[in-house]
């Protein structure tokens, strides 16, 4: 496995731990539908929260959340719709992004952007 894959896994583990510490219940990780993947699906306050985790070793070129393109949003929304149908969920859905970046001391830090995009942003 490549180093960037290891970093991505570490970032997803950090994000899941962060969410649990903040009262989220993890329902699924790496949920796949067709070619789409949702990093984390969680529940809090009767909401289903679909979380895209983006990790970068530097923010020189762009911030991690800026890498969530319209195409990526479309695939996340498609997979989220499938999840909701498959598990017969009728909760409201929120789409979040968690960015993981090293700080000036090389410690990884989390930035949680709640309600980062809407399903209609996929159009």
Strand order of the main beta sheet, please? 1-2-3-4-5
Task: Compute the CA-based radius of gyration.
Answer: 14 Å
Shape: globular
Per CATH, the architecture is 3-Layer(aba) Sandwich
The CATH topology turns out to be Trna Endonuclease, Chain: A, domain 1
Q: Mind telling me the CATH class?
A: Alpha Beta
Number of helices, where a helix is a run of at least 4 consecutive DSSP H or I residues: 2
Mean pLDDT: 87
The number of domains is 1
Strand content range: 35-45%
Q: Tell me how many strands there are.
A: 5
Sequence of secondary-structure elements? HEEEHEE
Largest beta-sheet details: 5 strands, mixed
Helix amount: 25-40%
**Low-pLDDT segments, ≥5 res:** none
Pfam family, one: UPF0102
Protein name: UPF0102 protein C1631_018445
InterPro entries: Restrct_endonuc-II-like (IPR011335), tRNA_endonuc-like_dom_sf (IPR011856), UPF0102_YraN-like (IPR003509)
Family: Belongs to the UPF0102 family.
Describe the model.
This protein has helices at 3-21, 70-86; strands spanning 25-33, 36-44, 47-55, 92-102, 108-117. Helix 2 links the parallel strand 3 (47-55) and strand 4. The protein is globular. The longest helix has 19 residues, at 3-21. The protein has 123 residues and is of the alpha+beta class. It has 2 helices and 5 strands; from the N terminus they run αβββαββ. The model has no long low-confidence stretch (mean pLDDT 87). GO terms for molecular function: nucleic acid binding. This is UPF0102 protein C1631_018445. Pfam families: UPF0102. Belongs to the UPF0102 family.
Sum up the structure in keywords.
123 residues, alpha+beta, five-stranded mixed β-sheet, 29% helix
